[in-house]
Design brief:
With 131 residues, the chain is mainly α. The chain is 76% helix and 0% strand. The longest helix has 27 residues, at 2-28.
Length: 131
């Protein structure tokens, strides 16, 4: 049951976060100047590119269970930045969703992908706990 729970968590988190990543991917390749927040001293283009990497690519990696812990680290860091930097002064109403994602990605980070994953299929028991 634990393996199925990890699979459902990974697919659910990844799919829901993709709904935020796909529009950012489209915005990244749209014509005209980049409209995005400048975070931690990075340009709007770099901030958007890193958000796309995390929310689009890492979400897909989480869903299929490939390099799962690495992707979970990236997404955990992203959620911490969103909660404490981007929405640090906005209150719980704006922080609630990224906090929920943060908790989910921490669970994935701590547990790994589980046996129903590409990590386990490719690297076996030893490798699945590593990635």
């Amino acid at each position: 049951m634990t393996q199925l729970s990890l699979l459902l968590l990974r697919i659910g988190l990844g799919a829901l976060l993709l709904t935020h990543g796909v529009p950012k991917l489209q915005r990244l390749f749209a014509e005209g100047p980049v409209q995005f927040s400048e975070v931690l001293g990075m340009s709007a283009g770099l901030s958007l590119g890193l958000a796309v990497f995390a929310e689009f690519l890492c979400s897909i990696l989480i869903m299929v269970g490939l390099f799962t812990r690495y992707a979970a680290v990236v997404l955990t860091v992203l959620m911490v930045i969103i909660v404490f930097v981007v929405h640090g002064d906005d209150g719980l109403s704006r922080q609630e969703l990224p906090l929920l994602y943060l908790l989910g990605f921490l669970v994935v980070l701590l547990n790994g992908a589980g046996k129903i994953s590409l990590d386990h299929l490719i690297w076996g028991k030893k490798g699945s706990s590593r990635y």
